[in-house]
């Protein structure tokens, strides 16, 4: 079993940067690929990015490619999503997920509770 807890969400202006983090506990963190998704009101859950167990491979959704970066600290058991040049359309609840290196949410067995990110113009 893996428990995930996100932190770092908040309200920012367009063009600002924000970092959200996910702390994983339970099962051995170092062997688990991790992902980030987001969901805006009335919308389906959208793939943001994923990182493999070693941290050497990442994939990003087209909407965030070039602006967002995922990294992980195996020793600390954390995965970080660095968001730069934020836009109002990035406003959503951001979810940390674990257990897959994939872009589809159904492939991830473990989920955090989410953290709100709001970007105003």
Describe the global form.
globular
Radius of gyration: 13 Å
Total E-strand runs = 11
Question: What is the structural class?
Answer: mainly beta
Uncertain parts: none
% residues in beta strands: over 45%
User: Main beta sheet: strand number and arrangement?
Assistant: 7 strands, mixed
The separation of the N and C termini measures 40 Å
What is the average per-residue confidence, as pLDDT, rounded to a whole number? Answer: 94
Binned, the helix content reads under 10%
Q: What is the N-to-C order of secondary-structure elements (H for helix, E for strand)?
A: EEEEEEEEEEE
Protein described:
The chain is mainly beta and 121 residues long. It has no helices and eleven strands. The chain is globular, with a radius of gyration of 13 Å. The termini are far apart.
Short description:
With 121 residues, this protein is mostly beta strands. The chain has strands spanning 2-7, 10-13, 18-26, 34-39, 46-51, 58-60, 68-73, 78-83, 92-98, 110-111, 115-120. The strands form 2 sheets. Strands 2, 4, 5, 6, 9, 10 and 11 form a 7-stranded mixed beta sheet that branches. The chain has a 4-stranded antiparallel beta sheet with strand order 1-3-8-7, with no helix packed on it.
List the helices and strands and how they pair.
Blueprint lengths: L1 E6 L2 E4 L4 E9 L7 E6 L6 E6 L6 E3 L7 E6 L4 E6 L8 E7 L11 E2 L3 E6 L1
Parallel strand pairs: 2-11
Antiparallel strand pairs: 1-3, 3-8, 4-5, 4-9, 5-6, 7-8, 9-10, 9-11
């Amino acid at each position: 079993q893996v428990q995930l807890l996100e932190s770092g969400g908040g309200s920012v202006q367009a063009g600002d940067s924000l970092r959200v983090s996910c702390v994983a506990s339970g099962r051995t963190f170092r062997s688990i690929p991790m992902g980030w998704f987001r969901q805006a009101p009335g919308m389906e859950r959208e793939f943001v990015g994923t990182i493999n167990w070693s941290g050497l491979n990442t994939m990003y959704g087209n909407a965030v490619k070039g602006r967002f970066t995922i990294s992980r600290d195996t020793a600390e058991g954390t995965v970080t999503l660095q968001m730069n040049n934020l836009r109002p359309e990035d406003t959503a609840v951001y979810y940390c997920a674990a257990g897959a290196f994939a872009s589809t949410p159904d492939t991830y067995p473990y989920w955090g509770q989410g953290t709100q990110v709001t970007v105003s113009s």
